[in-house]
Amino acid sequence: MPPYEFKEIINQCYEVGVKSLPLISLTGFITGIVFTNQSRPSLTDFGATAMLPSLIAIAIIRALAPLVTALIAAGKVGSNIGAELGSMKVTEQIDAMEVSGTNPFKFLVVSRVLATTIMIPILSCYTGFVGLMGSFLNVYQHESVSFVSFFDEVFNTITFLDIFQAIIKAGFFGFTIGIVGCFHGYNSSKGTEGVGRAANAAVVTSMFLIFIEEQLVVMIVQSIRG
Amino acid sequence: MEKKLSHINYQNAVIDIKGLRKSFGELHVLRGVDLQLFEGENLVVLGRSGTGKSVLIKVISGLLYPDEGSVNVLGQEVEELDEKALMALRLRIGFSFQNSALYDSMTVRENLEFPLVRNKRTLSRAEIDKEVEEVLDSVGLLQALNQMPSELSGGQRKRIGIARTLILRPDIMLYDEPTAGLDPITCTEINSLINEVQERYKTSSIIITHDLTCAKETGDRIVMLLDGKFERQGRFNDIFNSEDSRVKAFYDYNFIA
């Protein structure tokens, strides 16, 4: 039903996506380097250092990229949504919206949930890329593997199902972050204390649900793989 | 000097409330309120904090639903309206919030445009700009057009809040504590603005307050909310010539304060 609030959806996509890029870039890059560093000794013990790009690819694409992105976004975006809507609630801005003939649910909640659901998978793909780049730099430094060889190994290992499940999973994570943040913000009360509580509850609940969803998706994908 | 009443149409009640009851758990806030607001009238609802004055206007605007009783606004029973009809009715009711409730992430211009672009979608950019500037001028704050709410004083925020409600040209204005937290000079300016709005936009208004100066300067009629019911009503002097100890206590407290 019109109005569709496209402008607000774009605005929220910018808030969720573009403004999270620096933090996501740094975290993804470091995750790639650290995970590679930590994996190397175990593979070296078995004389399987050549498997490093494959191992990293599977770990980052299947699990780390969506999970790290979602956890970072739960902390940054989820708390932001909870605090923003909480503040609007206690200062009667949501009531003001309602009495001026605007559906606050559509304007505030739908736009934010759509933005997180769209942007977290995109950010997750970006985190995967940055994480692999970090990993490549580490492998290049220690094993002198070329860029082409590294990514050839990476793309030979991962399948369409890996990428598909990662994107779908990130979509669920994004939806969870958006809806939980909005729920706690929209239902906050008791002044500034309530705003802080809403932001905190948004982060804690989102993270808890993200881990449960991660486990569920792994179980479903494993059953598909047989 | 008390206000003249010739502008009021006593044949047409724009708000008609009968037997309104509203509780929050064990707290019985409104205990059978009957009220009529006539076309063109400024009605002041006086009462101590926490007596349910704000609850009353939130019920009128459909933000809260009554437990019992009927609330008829502009010929429509509020509690019977579906979402679409309630939205349409709300466009005819302006609500000025106690803390102004300006959208703090938007400029003054965007605050004023917000209800306009969503509810009058046929307006061109030039028409929107004209409406915004006109209504801002009517509250004397044209220079604040591109400022953020955080850059405004309390009185300016109240004025912008009133301007935002006026932009949809409502038939009824609901003012929730319009002078709360303001200095005496700004209070007088806000009181004058409420009277100007009544004259210029031909609105009927309910003014919720515990400020006797506001009640005296803006009210055509005053009702006192005591223990969840309207106990006294009339002109300002009629109310405060009452021998009711609760009314006297209220008057004395305001006078001393």
From TrEMBL, chain B:
The keyword ATP-binding applies. This is ABC transporter ATP-binding protein. InterPro entries: AAA+_ATPase, ABC_transporter-like_ATP-bd, ABC_transporter-like_CS, P-loop_NTPase. Gene3D superfamilies: P-loop containing nucleotide triphosphate hydrolases. Keywords: ATP-binding, Nucleotide-binding, Transport. PANTHER family: PROTEIN TRIGALACTOSYLDIACYLGLYCEROL 3, CHLOROPLASTIC (PTHR43023). It comes from the Bacteria. One of its GO terms (molecular function) is ATP binding. It comes from Olivibacter ginsenosidimutans. PROSITE patterns: ABC_TRANSPORTER_1 (PS00211), ABC_TRANSPORTER_2 (PS50893). Residues 15-252 form the ABC transporter domain.
